[in-house]
Structures are given as structure tokens and as C-alpha cells.
């Protein structure tokens, strides 16, 4: 089954990102003309005669609401195929099931905590070995490659210290060594970065974040161009059952319609806040790839459309109590895990998302006691700046 990028519009025309975000994969409902894709809340489909059906037999395998979403997701990453999953971790789980016992994976060292947990506490027991490598100099990857290496798992920008990894340089190594290059593109969103264009084989998203954009759904996605990878992953999705429901598919399809507009505002607000923090007397480091002096700024400029609304910062003196004080004083920002929604969030990685990492290891990764992470939302910038000003006072 090939997902068509745009069903209603001409297949010979290429459309811009915003047009695809609103229309790709979707067509008016054939029975009523409803402009919004219906939520096909069904588990099975009636067959005319045994085996004769309209492409839909059982809803774990395929559901029309999900098909529309997958068409849209594929268009956003310029991919031939997309598959939607029940969560970002459900998508990552299927990617790992492409491997066999004895295979090895080289991963970005400051990985999303849930990915690290799944690799080490689930797949390591099935004989898969993971190497965690700082990929800021892509050539450092080479020394970990051996005959068992099958996959590179890249996350960029990284969480929470916003390092940027050169996807094209990783793709060169992957091609040369015949490795599958997977990029977790959650932080950037397809609006800011398209890893397949840079040579990646699989793009992974937690659609829970920017794609959904409204903090009301958990969802994951994989995009790819290779026919065989698509077949294998679609097989795993149907066989293992990490399929999203029709209501959730609808919510993400609806969320994506404003992705490009939201991202513009996330980036605008993000820049203003990064600049404000940089000059604040209580703030020590500000991690944001848009600063020309960011160590990977040139790579970010090359592979990203803009620099996003994810920012981390530390306080002078690195005092835990002071960081807690800031975290509990914000009023427009909410103290919460997650990211990518319309509302601004503030997190304290050392006690929240990264609490399970032992302190020395955590500090080595730059996640010090006073580090605070912002997911800058799309509220009025003056309100966000005033909120941070009073919280840091
Ligand atoms: C949230 C997140 C995930 C996991 O996605 P879920 O939808 O929560 O399962 C994976 N990678 C990154 C970078 C994330 O932020």
C-alpha cells in the first residue's frame, strides 16, 4: 500500500509546506463532502465476498482516518511513506525490531530519556548492544563501528543542552558502512528540519509534541522512502499493535493544519527569550542553537530552517534552591514535562526528565542543578518576557 502525498490535488504539482500541512492526504468525505476527515471509529469493515474489500479489512492494519494522517505526515517530511504509531516510543520500538540479537547501534549520547530506557532496559535483554557517542564530530562515530553495527540513531537538537549534530555527515558514514540512519526529529519538527533530504533512512517523531501541538494527544510517526523498510515497518506495526486510534489520528491531523504558523511564532518567541536570558544578570549559560557563538551554529544554520523555541539555561552559582524558586514562580509558563504545545512550559531536568541519571553523569552531560528548560509557546511575547522577568527577580 503506497500512501499518496496529496489525494485531492494534482499529483504532478509540488506544493509548499503550509499547503501540504493543511491538505496533504485528505479529500472531502466521499459520502457527504465533509471537509474534515471523519473519525472512522470502527474495528472492522464489511466485505462484499470473502477477501473482497476496499483496502480495509481490520483496523489494527489500516484505518481511513489514520491513512489520511499518514499521507499528510509523508508530505511534511518529503517522504514516500509514513506510518503513524500510538506513541513516539511505539514508533521507536518498531524501529528496534528491525534488528536481530548481536546487532549493535551507535546512538547520540544525550538521548531522550525514554529512548535510553527502552534501549537499555528492554532491547539490551534481547541481545542488542548500544554505544552512546557524542556525535558533535561525526567522525568520532567511526571508531565504534564494527561488523555487527547495523544502525545509527541520531537525535538533534539534543535534550536539554541543544547540541546540534550534522545529519548529512552522519549519512555519509551510514552509506559508506551500510548502516540504517534513523533521526529522531521531534525537537525540530518537519517545519525546521527534513532528515530524509539530508540522507537519513528513517525519520522518527513523537507527534505528541510539535506535530499535535496542543498537548492533548500521545502519538508517534515514522517516515521513509525505501520500499523494503516501509514494508518491514508496516508489518511490525500491524503485527505488534502499536497502532494509533482514529480519534487520536484526527487530533494530530487537525493539529498539523497550523504547524507552519505555530512554528513561526515558536521561533520568533524563542529568539526573543534566548536574547533576554543572555543579558539577564542572574543567568549563566543559555543553550540555544541560534546564537552565532553556539558551538554547532553553522551546522544548525545549514540543516535547519530556523532555530526553534527550545531553550535551556543555568543560573549563576548553580543553586538548586534558586532554580526551584524560579520554577515555582512562573505564572504564564507552566511547570511540566513535555514540549511543543501552544502553551509555554518550564522544566527542571535534574529533578524531572533526567532525575534517574546519577548526579556525576548528569553533570558531565551539562545537566547541572540549576539547569532549566523552556518549551516556548505561542503566547504574546511581552507576557512571556514579563513572566520570566518576575520569576528571576
Ligand atoms: C517525547 C519524546 C519521545 C517519546 O515520544 P512519546 O510520544 O512520548 O512516546 C521521543 N523522543 C523525543 C525527542 C521526545 O521528546
Q: Total number of helical segments? A: 13
Bound ligand species: pyridoxal-5'-phosphate
Nearest-angstrom radius of gyration? 21 Å
**Average pLDDT over all residues:** 95
User: Strand fraction band?
Assistant: 5-15%
Quaternary structure: single chain
CATH fold node name of the largest domain: Aspartate Aminotransferase, domain 2
Describe this structure in words.
By secondary structure, this protein is an alpha/beta fold. It has 2 domains: 2-256, Type I PLP-dependent aspartate aminotransferase-like (Major domain) (Aspartate Aminotransferase, domain 2), CATH 3.40.640; 259-391, Alpha-Beta Complex (Aspartate Aminotransferase, domain 1). The chain has 13 helices and 12 strands. It has helices at 17-23, 64-76, 88-96, 113-121, 167-177, 189-192, 227-240, 246-256, 259-278, 297-303, 320-329, 359-364, 381-392, and strands spanning 81-85, 104-108, 129-133, 149-155, 180-184, 202-206, 220-224, 283-287, 310-315, 334-335, 345-347, 372-375. The protein has a 7-stranded mixed sheet with strand order 1-7-6-5-4-2-3, sandwiched between helices. The chain has a 5-stranded mixed sheet with strand order 8-9-12-11-10, with helices on one face. α5 links the parallel β4 and β5 (180-184). α1 (17-23) packs antiparallel against α2 (64-76) and α2 runs parallel beside α8 (246-256). It is globular. Residues 1-8 have low confidence and may be disordered. Pyridoxal-5'-phosphate (PLP) binds at residues 87-89, 112, 114-115, 155, 159, 184, 186-187, 206, 208-209, 218, 220. Pyridoxal-5'-phosphate is lined by residues 87-89, 112, 114-115, 155, 159, 184, 186-187, 206, 208-209, 218, 220.
Amino acid at each position: 500500500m503506497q500512501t499518496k502525498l496529496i489525494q485531492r490535488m494534482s499529483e504532478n504539482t509540488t506544493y509548499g509546506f503550509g499547503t501540504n500541512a493543511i491538505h496533504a492526504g485528505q479529500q472531502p468525505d466521499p459520502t457527504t463532502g465533509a471537509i474534515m476527515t471523519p473519525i472512522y471509529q470502527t474495528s472492522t469493515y464489511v466485505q462484499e465476498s470473502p477477501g473482497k474489500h476496499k483496502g480495509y479489512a481490520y483496523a489494527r492494519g489500516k484505518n481511513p482516518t489514520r491513512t489520511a494522517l499518514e499521507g499528510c505526515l509523508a508530505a511534511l517530511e518529503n517522504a514516500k511513506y509514513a506510518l503513524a504509531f500510538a506513541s513516539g516510543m511505539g514508533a521507536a520500538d518498531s524501529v528496534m525490531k528491525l534488528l536481530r540479537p548481536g546487532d549493535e547501534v551507535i546512538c547520540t549520547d544525550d538521548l531522550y530519556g525514554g529512548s535510553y530506557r527502552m534501549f537499555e532496559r528492554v532491547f539490551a535483554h534481547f541481545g542488542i548492544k548500544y554505544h552512546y557517542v557524542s556525535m558533535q564530530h561525526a567522525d568520532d562515530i567511526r571508531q565504534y563501528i564494527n561488523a555487527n553495527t547495523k544502525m545509527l540513531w541520531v537525535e538533534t537538537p539534543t535534550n536539554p543542552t541543544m547540541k546540534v549534530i550534522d545529519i548529512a555527515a552522519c549519512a555519509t558514514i551510514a552509506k559508506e558502512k551500510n548502516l540504517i540512519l534513523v533521526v529522531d526529529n521531534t525537537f525540530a519538527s518537519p517545519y525546521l528540519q527534513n532528515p530524509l533530504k539530508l540522507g537519513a533512512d528513517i525519520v522518527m517523531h513523537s507527534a505528541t509534541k510539535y506535530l499535535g501541538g496542543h498537548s492533548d494527544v500521545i502519538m508517534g510517526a515514522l517516515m521513509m522512502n525505501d520500499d523494503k523498510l516501509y514494508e518491514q515497518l508496516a508489518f511490525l506495526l500491524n503485527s505488534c499493535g502499536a497502532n494509533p486510534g482514529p480519534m487520536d489520528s484526527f487530533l494530530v491531523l487537525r493539529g498539523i493544519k497550523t504547524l507552519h504558523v505555530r512554528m513561526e511564532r515558536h521561533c520568533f518567541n524563542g529568539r526573543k527569550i534566548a536574547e533576554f536570558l543572555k543579558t539577564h544578570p542572574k543567568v549563566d549559560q543559555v543553550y540555544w542553537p541560534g546564537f552565532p557563538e553556539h558551538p554547532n551554529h553553522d551546522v544548525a544554520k545549514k540543516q535547519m530552517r530556523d532555530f526553534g523555541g527550545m531553550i535551556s539555561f543555568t543560573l549563576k552559582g548553580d543553586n538548586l534552591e534558586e532554580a526551584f524558586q524560579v520554577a515555582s514562580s512562573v505564572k504564564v509558563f507552566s511547570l511540566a514535562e513535555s514540549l511543543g504545545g501552544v502553551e509555554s512550559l518550564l522544566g527542571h531536568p535534574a529533578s524531572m526528565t533526567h532525575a534517574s541519571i546519577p548526579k556525576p553523569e548528569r553533570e558531565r552531560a551539562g545537566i547541572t542543578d540549576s539547569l532549566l528548560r523552556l518549551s516556548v509557546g505561542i503566547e504574546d511575547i511581552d507576557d512571556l518576557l514579563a513572566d520570566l522577568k518576575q520569576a528571576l527577580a
